[in-house]
Write a structure and sequence with these properties.
By secondary structure, the protein is of the alpha+beta class. Helix content is about 45%, strand content about 15%.
């Protein structure tokens, strides 16, 4: 019983640290309130339901365009993939625009 409890507790500490690291990466982008939404599995990680491997961030189209000019080497040819900046997965839409 104690071993399982310690493993679960350790796992939750690791989850929180990885999420905090991703949020610090997001802070570096200096996005303002209303310019982005944290999406994907991050809300589940905030509630200790599951771990995440990256942070999905949906930004306004004008912000995405600015980032694609600033970081062209990180933009994917796949329109669904967006761009990847370290552990941040930057998208201009959660659903693909036709």
């Amino acid at each position: 019983m104690w071993i399982i409890f310690l493993k679960v507790r350790y796992y939750k500490v690791i989850m929180k640290k990885s999420l905090e690291g991703y949020l610090k990466e997001l802070e570096v982008l200096s996005l303002q309130r209303g310019e982005y939404v944290i999406a994907g599995s991050a809300p589940l990680a905030l509630r200790d339901i599951r771990d995440i491997e990256d942070l999905d961030v949906v930004v306004r189209k004008d912000i995405y365009k600015r980032f694609s000019i600033k970081y062209p080497e990180h933009v994917s040819d796949n329109p669904f993939a967006g761009m990847v900046l370290n552990n941040l997965h930057i998208l201009n839409s959660w659903l693909y625009d036709y």
